[in-house]
Amino acid sequence: MSSILCYWKYGNYLYDIERGHLARTPSYSSNQRRLHLVPDIGEKAYLVTYNERRCYLVGKIKIAGKRFNPPKRMYMYGRYRIVGIPKESSFYDYGNIDVTDRVVAFIKRNLRSDKEKSARLPHPIPQYLQTIRQLTESDAMSLENCIDAHNRHLKP
């Protein structure tokens, strides 16, 4: 199975919260064709946002289907959309699940040169996340562990 990592621009995340979009059927849209090509039905899309030099996990969607947004009513986020299984998808409050270290480690593993891998990232984190990324099973498990730790913290 191939999970994916998707970047949700912070401003778009705030916009969707303000408009109540997160209360609807979980979904994520992009202009990237990879959103339909890489993950299969039943796989997960992990949504991260970036603000104030930190990267936060703000959603997980277990994919139930793939759709095209209608051309006449073009969604502001793009043509391709995945729709999630509501009971197996979640959104998390901004700032609660900091995954900066995990995302930086993931980015460094996927850089081309050893020099880039050992140094500080030469570009801001969002630049690396603009392309939907396929996660290894280990990367997905690491994000699941963050979610589990967050959920344990919430329980009395």
Descriptive report:
With 156 residues, the protein is of the alpha+beta class. The chain has helices spanning 10-18, 34-37, 100-109, 114-118, 125-129, 137-154; strands spanning 4-7, 27-30, 44-51, 54-68, 80-84, 90-91, 133-134. The chain is globular and about 45 Å long. The model has no long low-confidence stretch (mean pLDDT 88). It has a single domain, classed as ph1033 like fold, CATH 3.10.590. The chain is 33% helix and 26% strand. It contains 6 helices and 7 strands, in the order βαβαββββαααβα. Strand 3 and strand 4 (54-68) form a beta hairpin.
List the helices and strands and how they pair.
Elements: E1 4-7, H1 10-18, E2 27-30, H2 34-37, E3 44-51, E4 54-68, E5 80-84, E6 90-91, H3 100-109, H4 114-118, H5 125-129, E7 133-134, H6 137-154
Parallel strand pairs: 1-3
Antiparallel strand pairs: 1-7, 2-5, 3-4, 4-5, 4-6
Cα-based radius of gyration, to the nearest Å: 15 Å
State the distance separating the first and last CA atoms: 34 Å
CATH top level is Alpha Beta
Q: Based on CA inertia axes, which overall geometry fits?
A: globular
* Low-confidence parts: none
- Overall structural domain count: 1
Order of helices and strands: EHEHEEEEHHHEH
Share of helical residues: 25-40%
**Percent strand:** 25-35%
Which structural class do the helices and strands define?
alpha+beta
Task: Kindly report the oligomeric state of this protein.
Answer: single chain
